[in-house]
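Input for the complex:
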Amino acid sequence: MARPDPEVYLRLCADDLAVALSREDGRGRPGGEPAETTIEAIEQVGAALALVGACSEAAVEHALADLVLMLGLRDLPGGSLEPVVIDDDPVDSGAGVAQHGPELVVDCGLRCSLGACDLRVGWLVRTASRTFLHADAREFPGPAGGARRARSGPPPIDDLIAVDDAGNAYRVEWGAHGVEVAGTVGEALLVPDPPVDTAWLELRPPKVDPLRVHLHRAGRVRTGREDSPWTPPAERYLTHLASRRGRGHPWAGWSGGASEGERCEARICDAFVALGLVAPDHEAVRILGGERLAATGDGSGPDGWARESPWAAPAEGGEERYATRALGAELPLERIRVVLEGATLVEHELSIWVHVSPVPRARPRPLGAAHPEEDPPWLRAHDERGRAYEAVRAHWFSGEGGASGELAFTPGLGDDVRTLRVVAETPYEAAWAEVEVPGR
Amino acid sequence: MTGDAWWAGVPIAETDVECGGARHTLLWVGGRLVMLEHDEPDDERPRLAFGASWSTCQDLCAAWRRHADDIRVLTLGPRSPDDQIRVGAGALDQLGGRVHHGLTGRAGTGHAPPALPGRGRPPGRRRSPPLLPAPAGGPGSADDALWQDHLELLRLFALPRPLLDRLVLEVCAAQTAELERCGGDPAESHPALLAALVSRVRAVVRAWSTPGGERPEIALEPELHLDPSNPGASLVLAGGDDAALRADVGTGWLAGVWARQLALVDGYLVTELLAVEDDWASARALRPPSGPRISTPRTIELARRSGVEGWIVVRR
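Predicted:
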């Protein structure tokens, strides 16, 4: 039997939804799933088809836009009559992607007290248009030594200034950042952006000696391509999803019953099988498909996986161990640009900050907590003794032709770990970098 | 079916429009929408800027012509007679469109006078899919034309159903003609067109195989194949005792059968239209299922219902 075209398949899924919703008089899909949930599943199927190259991103977006408008024309839930934006140009890939993201990363290692916070600066990043510091600001405890309070915004850092070798001064302002109860982490921008020929920058915090940072490439991180046996992208994608199954997603805050993410994964599985992208007896299909709903528990995963925040308070009476290391390692991937900017180690928790460009499209805005946003690259690692680690997304920011943010590795690193081989993988290729653990 | 005009056997439909303080009539006849109280809009006349206006009648006619080969009409439009499109005036108002209230559609029982010309122009290439600005700027922004394209499509979907059905028929005919002509690159629209075809086929087979909600022992497995010049769906209908029947329907079925409301008549599933006149048609069809066995297609004759949309089987 001839295989259906992926776009036809996607459009027929949308058609099924419209029919089901019409029969239910708009109250929901048979089986009790709300419409938004099912739209989410179709969106995720579309994104997956685009990701593995079965369907163009524009075709997926057109099909999804038609779905929403089709529902809107029938006054069904999840529908809208609003026009949508679709860019028919394919996402840049290959050599073009190198125009975005870090061009230089250098160590800083600055710690200082500003008015309201304890600021750590791990490294400095230069891109074609920006210069920023990787900053981690912890608020000081309250007046009576009480618990740290949640802030509505990041603590001010304008007491810190920078001066270059030509005598120009720069303000330091928060750029992309994440705010949590215990602190703020992200990019501290130098404003205005220093000239291209700047030789060094001096960070001048109050009450602390200035720190001079020379803007030249320092040590080199070893990288290489991972020559694993070739696997079709769709199989690789499902295998990746299957490897996550049952572990929960510590950052998504899922709770209760079979998660929507697992339903989405099962539908992706169904689509890949129906389209002949994977064999129906593939191990990943077994894991993600038939056993999906019966096997799932509360979504929180096994004990020990619900990790604490990396900003958890240090042990009583002592200060947490904290170290950073600039990496500036561009991985030798051909279809996507991935730069490991730097690494932080807080106690035993290792995080690597990465820049990715371009960000895969055809993944419309999520309609709620659902399928984990596991856009490639997927990072994993193993240490000298072969122990495996997996990365989950923590802070994540979009912009400048791509996205960047923190991937936190789990489980925590043992005291004896000195080096990790970090592997970044997409459905098409994989590459590695040898990362020395900060502070060791 | 060969030789007959694509609109043959499709009755006149009309609607009243509030236009300049008066009630005017738009008439679909002979495969085109015409105005009774105005001159024809000039096809070459450029689209007006957002907010500017011809008469309401001219606006609708111009919009109709612009979208008469627009695959989105088929992609988004009704799947079956029961598939209700509900574009409310409030929704259009909210989007900034000029809403035409008081449209009251009437499907006539008359037919196209032979002297009327056919379509003013051949169906063009597939119109580009919506490339619209985010609604943040709203109507009146620099993207007027794109907004207007979206809004006029919605306005067409707000037309009374008999007229909307005829617009859908025009699009089906245009898409089929385009594929037959193959002057451009029809592959661009194949997936959307094929999905539109299969969705209609499935709706018809669903209604055919489950009359009154009963579910006979018939399984449907639409088997799809892509042919560069004639994308279509092969249906494999399998009953008990390994009885199976294969019926191929291409995009021609959309314009020739489905859009003429001939797909399901008195329980017969029409797979091919053999000939059609104003009030009469002959077709190959599967008789209503009874039990696990499926009959082979047979030739039937149909007559138009008097005074209403639809057909009845008069000879089987």
